Amino acid sequence: MLQTIFSRIGWGAALLLLQVLVFNHIHLGGYATPMPYVYLLMILPGSTPRWLYIVTGFAFGLTLDIFTSTPGLTASALCLCGLFVPLLLSLFSPAETDGEAPEPSARAMKWGPFSRYALFVILLHCSAFFVVEAFTFSLWPDLLLQIASSSVLTLVFVLCFEGLRSSR
Amino acid sequence: MYYLLEFFRKYHYLLLFVVLEVVSFVLLCRFNSYQGSVTLSAANSTAAAIGGLYDDAKAYFQLGEINADLTQRNLQLQIQNEQLRERLRQLGADSSYTTRGVAQALESYSLIPASVVSNSVTMRRGGYLVIDKGAADGVRPEMGVVGGGGVVGIVYLVGNHHALIIPLTNSKSNVSCRVRGKDYFGYLSWQGGNLLHATLQDIPRYAGIKPGGVVETSGYSSVFPPGIFVGRIKAVNNSADGQSYALDIHLGTDFARIRDVAVVATPYKAEIDSLYHHAQEAEAQMSRH
Fold first, then answer.
1. In angstroms, rounded to a whole number, what is the distance separating the alpha carbons of residues B139 and B155?
2. Do B174 and B156 form a contact (C-beta atoms < 8 A)?
3. Between the CA of residue B179 and those of A8, B186, B211, B232, what are the distances in Å?
C-alpha cells in the first residue's frame, strides 16, 4: 500500500516535471499540446475514495497551474476528471474481479479496454481544459481541432507511459 | 433533515467537487485577465438584460395609467377639434360677416326669435319649415323669416303657437332681390335639385354682373327690409328668352340643417298693405263707374 502511494507520488512528480519542462513547449501545428499528466488520475488504485480522486485532481492541477501562471484552469479540468475517472474505470474494467477493486492497468484490463478507458478520460480532460481556456464557443471549429489533436497526442504519450509501467 | 444529512454523507464527494470547482473558477476569473474580462462583460450583459426586462415590465404595468391619460387627452383634443372645426366653418362661410350684416339691416325692425321644429325641405320638391312661434307671439302671414345665413323664407300659415314657412327652396317662393352695388332687381326662385342653389331672374344684360357678387333683398316688397343677405352669384347665364340674365345663386342658408331663425316684424307692413288695399278699392270703384 505504502509502495503504491510512493509510486504514485513518484509518477506525479515525474509527470509534473515533464509537463512543465517538456510538454508545455510542444504545440504541433499550433493546436496539439500533449497533456499526459492526467495519467496520474488514471492509475490511482481502484480502491481510492472518490473524494480523494477529486482532491488529487484539484491539488495536482493547481500545482501545474502555478508553474504555468494559469490559476484554476488545469485545476478545474482535473477536478472534473476526478469526478468521472472512477466511473469510467468501473465501466471499462473486466467484470470478473470477485468483489475486488478494479486495477487500472493494461496488464489487468488488457490493452483494448485500457486504451478506451484512457481515450475517454483524455477526451474529457482535453474538452474541459480547452473549453475553460477558450471561455467561448464562438470559435468552435478551432476548439474542436485543439481537443481532437491534443487528445490523440496525449493518448500516445499515455499509452507509452503505460507500456513503460507494465514492462516493469 | 435526516434524509438531507444522509444524502450528504453518501454523496459528500459531489459537494466537495462543487466547492473545488467554484474555487477553481474563482481563481480562474481572479488571476486570468482574459477569463476575468469575459466573465465581467457577461455579468454586465446579464445585468443589462435583466434591467431591460425589469424596465419592460414596469412600462407594461404603467400602460393602464398611460391609457387613461391618453383617453382623457383624446377627449380634450376631440372637443378642441370640434370647436376649431366649427370656427373654421364659420370663417369659411363668412357667416360672421353675414350675421353682422343681417343684424345691421334688421336694426330698426323687431325680430321674433324662433326655432325650426319641423323641416320637410327636400331636394326633390322643396317643402316647408315649421317654427315654434305663432299668432300668440305676434307672427303674421307674409312676414319674412331670416337666419344666421340670411333670408330663410316667408310665413305662409299661422297657428296660435306655430307657423308654416315657405323657404326659398320651395317652387312657390318668389322673393324680390338685387345685386349689391347695383340697383337692378329681379326675382329669386328655386327650380328643385340642390338646396344651396337658386336662380335670380330678370336681371338686365347691361347691369354688368360678375360672379362672386352678393345678392341681397331689394326691399321692394314689404316682407323683407332691403340689404339682407341672400347668397352669392355663382354663375351668370342667359335667360330662356335671351333678353336678360338668369343668375345662379349660391344661397347663404343651408336649409338642410337650419335651426335658429327670426321672424321679421316689419313696422311699415300694415301701412303699406293698407295703401295697397286702398289703391285696389279705388281701382274697383273706378271700374264700377
1. 8
2. no
3. 126, 9, 11, 9
Q: Which domains does chain B have, with CATH numbers?
A: 2-61 (no CATH), 109-268 (2.40.10.350)
Inter-chain residue contact B28 with A55, CB threshold 8 Å: no
* Per-chain mean pLDDT for chain A: 89
- CA proximity to B178, closest of B148, B146, B207: B207
All cell numbers assigned to B245: 340674365
How far is it, in rounded angstroms, from Cα B115 to Cα B250?
A: 23
Mutation target to probe the A interface, by most A beta carbons within 10 A, among B14, B20, B23 is B20
Q: For residue A133, which of A66, A60, A75 has the smallest C-alpha distance?
A: A75
B260-265 and B129-131: which strand pairing? unpaired
Q: Is B249 helix (H, G, I), strand (E, B) or coil?
A: strand
Beta bridge partners of B186: B177
The shortest C-alpha distance from B73 to chain A (Å) reads 51
pLDDT tens for residues B201-245?
888 888 888 888 888 888 777 788 778 888 999 988 888 777 888
* Residues near B175 by beta carbon (within 8 Å), at least 6 away in sequence: B151, B154, B168, B187, B188, B217, B221, B223, B224, B230
Q: Percentage of chain B with pLDDT > 90? A: 14
Domain count, chain A: 1
Segments forming the whole domain that contains residue A136: 2-167
At B188 the three-state DSSP class reads strand
By the CB < 8 Å criterion, does B100 face chain A?
A: no
Q: Are B27 and A70 in contact (CB under 8 A)?
A: no
Q: Which cell goes with B179?
A: 345685386
CATH code of residue A42? 1.10.1760
